[in-house]
Amino acid sequence: MTLLISLPESMAPRALSSALLSLEPGLKIVTGHDNVQNTNEVEFAVVWNNYPEGLLLNYPNLKAISSYGHGVDGLLADRKLPEGVPLVRLKDDTMAGWMSEYLLAVVLLHRRQLLRHAENSDFIEWGIASRYHGNQLSILGLGYLGQAAAKVFLKMRFDVSGWSRTLKKIEGVRSFSGNDGLNEMLKNTNYLVNLLPLTLETTDLLNTETLSKLKRGAYLINVGRGETLVEENLIPLLDEGQLSGACLDVFRTEPLPEEHPFRKHKKILITPHNSSSTPADSVAPQILENYKRAVSGRQLLNLVDLERGY
Ligand code: NAP
Ligand code: GLV
Fold first, then answer.
1. Distance 261 CA to ligand 1 centre (A)
2. Any catalytic annotation for residue 89?
3. What is the C-alpha to C-alpha distance for residues 121 and 119, in angstroms, rounded to an integer?
4. Which residues contact 259 (CB under 8 A, 6 or more apart)?
5. Fewer CB atoms inside 10 A, N or C side of the chain?
């Protein structure tokens, strides 16, 4: 019984291996497909988007596949996944905390114009307020990460709304769903946070039409997936003032190409898909739990719904 870890070096596969072994010293772990000696022994695989399509078909006794993140779009992009093998994803509290921390930092950085102060402390007269008005913050995707963020912004006294496929009951948060719900929410939004998974329905959702429905001068944060934003629509909206700025952590092509126009735009803040990276120590217990459940034929935690795509 082998647990295979197939992650890019940037995701520190050995840190996961050590964390798992510290919980279960006898565990048989192989790091990297090239190091698998007997493909029949692999029963559980932890993967990210870094493997050639169809590679998981090499393991005839695979019982479950775990994404090493909250998102599964990279995994589902593999059109040759082994049929009938369940997929699970992570739900990690530390990641939710880091994501909320990032979102709060970005919103406050913008609201208080701190980057402009950093560039030029005389950009505004002494003693004059430089704070953006507008308190309405909306989150696309009220799932594990979106709900955690909503609670943080509520504590900071933002007026918080969220959009999801199914309506939610979260004290203090206005919940919307469907197209009409989306339009209603957007028109009352100063800060828009995208925390949707990438699916057929969420691809290209953020475009000239939808972003023009936001309050004038709204600020966009994309931490979901790059493909949800129609990238070429963003700069015109920033240049004509419909949006006052954007912070992007995810892109259609990652790493973001050197020559990409987003890199030079003054109103765009870019981070390298690290708003909430996976912490090995924190996620190892749930990976181990799912491994044990998979090999003993028990119900898995955090199953991905293949029909919905998340
Ligand atoms: P989640 O728990 O699965 O929540 C997804 C939310 O999106 C749910 O509220 C879901 O609605 C909603 N949703 C999905 N499709 C929809 C649609 N067509 N219309 C309206 N709402 C829809 O996911 P999560 O754990 O919060 O993570 C969200 C995403 O964040 C991940 O998929 C990943 O892409 C991204 N992420 C990024 C980073 C980073 O570092 N940048 C880190 C982690 C995750 P229901 O509640 O009704 O199902
Ligand atoms: C990161 O992008 C994740 O999906 O966990």
1. 27
2. no
3. 7
4. none
5. N
- 263 catalytic per annotation: no
User: Phi then psi for 172, rounded to 5 degrees?
Assistant: 90, -10
CA of 195 to the centre of ligand 1 (A): 5
Give me ligand 1 centre to Cα 59, in Å: 29
pLDDT in tens, 72-93: 999 999 999 999 999 999 999 9
What are the E-state strand segments in 115-236?
136-140, 159-163, 174-176, 191-194, 218-222
Ligand nearest to the CA of 165: 1
* Domains detected in the chain: 2-92+278-296 (3.40.50.720), 94-270 (3.40.50.720)
Residue type for 206, please? L
**Parallel, antiparallel, or unpaired: how do β-strands 191-194 and 174-176 relate?**
unpaired
Of ligand 1's listed atoms, the one at least distance from the Cα of 250 is 41
Q: Record the tokens describing residue 94, joined without a space.
A: 């530390």
Which secondary-structure segment (H or E) carries 290?
helix 280-295
pTM given for the model: 0.98
Query: What does the alpha-carbon distance between residue 65 and residue 2 come to, in Å, rounded to a whole number?
Result: 13
